[in-house]
Known about the structure:
By secondary structure, this protein is an alpha/beta fold. It has 2 domains: 2-58, Arc Repressor Mutant, subunit A (Orthogonal Bundle), CATH 1.10.10; 73-235, no CATH class. The chain contains 11 helices and 6 strands. The strands form 2 sheets. Strands 3-4-6-5 form a 4-stranded mixed sheet, with helices on one face. A hairpin with a 2-residue loop joins strand 1 and strand 2 (56-58). Helix 10 crosses helix 11 (225-235). The longest helix has 14 residues, at 33-46. The two termini are 30 Å apart.
Amino acid sequence: MILECIQALAEKKSFSRQDFFQVFREKGFEAGEESLKKRLRKMLDVGAIVRVGRNAYCVPAKGMSQYEYQYSNISNAVARIIKESHPYLEFLIFELFQLNEFVNHQLAHNIIFVSVESEIMDFIFDKLKEAYPGKVLVNPTPEVFHKYWVDNMIVVTKMITETPKGRQQKWHARIESILVDVMTAPLLQESVSESEYAAIYEGAFTRYAVDESCLFRYAKRRAADKKIKSFIKEKTMGILRTE
């Protein structure tokens, strides 16, 4: 019976919590709303359905999952240094190699981007400089970025408010923030060819459950929501499920 419910839900591009309840009841489940809410949460936990927006879900296509990434040793070491020196600080780490899963031309050299609150950027820079002398820049211009570039360079930047937090670890970069930043963050634009954007977006939407509410809320914060929505519709094969 549950399989029949999943098959019915899979016919929808996306569905709401109310749609979920209705399908289960139509298939003969005599359960109250709380029981159905628990079933919804359980199915989310095991990946039988995935969230694609605010009160919007879908049955994932074969191979689709929640985005996860195995960070490099240097990124994990940087995270430990920050947590040990500032245990309550919110920060985010994105490394350039995260894009190699999506791009047509592999990125040969890694860069570690560390985003923190602006008031503490200099403190984090000083702390990381002790561990990685000559490899850390703080809020560089594109010119400085290129002038002092080294492999595995660590770049400390200002965290944008409303940046999505990671699921496993809060400092992990979510796929939604990656998709926005690759088209809006100046240093990432310097590092990734514009010709790769379509492949990045198509790969992300094909392989992972992208929370579109989260994506466009953050994109709006970076004044790029309309630009990114148009790009997805006009330049990629990605499907917006909440449209």
